[in-house]
Amino acid sequence: MNNSNLNLLVEEKRSLLKHFAGKFTTDPDEKEDLIQETLIRALKSIDDFIKHPKLMSWLYVIMKNVYINQYRKAKRTNDIHETYIGLEAYNTTESNKGENKFVSDDIEKAMCNLSEENYQIFQLFLEGYKYHEIASYFGMPEGTIKTRIHMTRKKLQKQLKVYQLK
Fold this sequence. Notes:
Blueprint: H1 3-22, H2 28-44, H3 46-51, H4 55-90, H5 97-112, H6 116-126, H7 131-138, H8 142-159
């Protein structure tokens, strides 16, 4: 399939995707982001996208998973903010911004010591992607991804042992 045929197929399905996105959100910007992310993920599997017998069902499942992942990520962020905002109310001391800079620099340095592929895998994991999503993105078995994330966490814990709470 050439690019023009693919563009026609995408434009043809875009109005239906907009309708699907309306089931998840009413915000026009969020709808557009949801449609774009769905198409990006679908186009990563271009062969499945073109040949899939139930194309719209497949796209709907992709869109639903994208929405769920975004919701989970936002919920985790809100939970973290609520936890730390609650802690700040009880904190009567000033934080040392210089110390925070050192900690941040040490974490960044430890992350830079990872191989490029392990760094990317761990970064996707931190962003809230599921193991199977990371595995399909890298074309690896899910078990390999789990092992790499586990080993990366252990390596980072070892390098940042000085910051562990006792």
